[in-house]
Amino acid sequence: MAKPNYAFEKRQRELAKKRKKEDKQASRKSSPGSDQGGYAQDNQAPDAAPVPGAPAPAAGEEPAA
């Protein structure tokens, strides 16, 4: 009976793991809204949501940035 080639099996597992990781990164880059690695919610304009405790701008005034 032939002995198992553990080094070959390990290398195949490592290559499969590397391939899977690259596929995952490629799918993340191609998905919509992933401009900065999936943090699209954090990259909105500062005036997109009011800050709690901040005074509201008066009518006709631009909000301070």
UniProtKB/TrEMBL annotation:
Comp. bias regions, Low complexity: 45-65
Question: Quick one: where's region Disordered?
Answer: 1-65
The protein's name is Uncharacterized protein
Which taxonomic lineage is given here? Answer: Bacteria, Pseudomonadati, Pseudomonadota, Betaproteobacteria, Burkholderiales
